[in-house]
Amino acid sequence: MSKKIYSNVEMKQLEANPNVVKVSERSITYHPFFKKVAIQEYQTGKFPSQIFEEHGFNLNIIGKDRPKRCLKRWRDTFEKYGELGLEGERRGKGGTGRPSSKELSAEEKLKKAEARIKYLEAENEFLKKLDELERQAMKKK
C-alpha cells in the first residue's frame, strides 16, 4: 500500500479516468482491461510512465514510481496466472486470492476436505468446553 494519501480533489481527478475502477485515500483500483493493455504496450517497448501518461494519469498525483511498481506486479501476475489473474480485485478483506493455476486431483480434494473436517471438529470441541466453563462460572455467581 502506498504511503501517499490522496486529497479529495486528487481522488475525484483519478476517478474521472476511465481506466480507474475506484480510488480510496491510499489506493487506486485499475480496470482489468487497462492492466492488459499496459502489459501489451510494455512488451512493445514503451516505458511504464509513458503508458500511464498516455492513458490520462498525472504522474504528479499518483507518483513517479507507481507506474513501474504497478507494471512489475501486473507482469508477475500475468506470467503466473495469465489474464485471469488480472481480472477483478484480490487485495483486502473482500479479496478471494489469486485463481489457482492448477486443478486439484480427487486425492488432493479428499485430503483438503479431511483436513477441514478435522479442523471443524476441533473447533466444535473447543466451543463445547468454552460453553461448559461459562455455565460453571454462572453457577458460582
From TrEMBL:
Residues 86-107 are annotated as: Disordered. It comes from the Bacteria. Pfam families: HTH_Tnp_2 (PF20310). This is Transposase. It comes from Salinicoccus jeotgali.
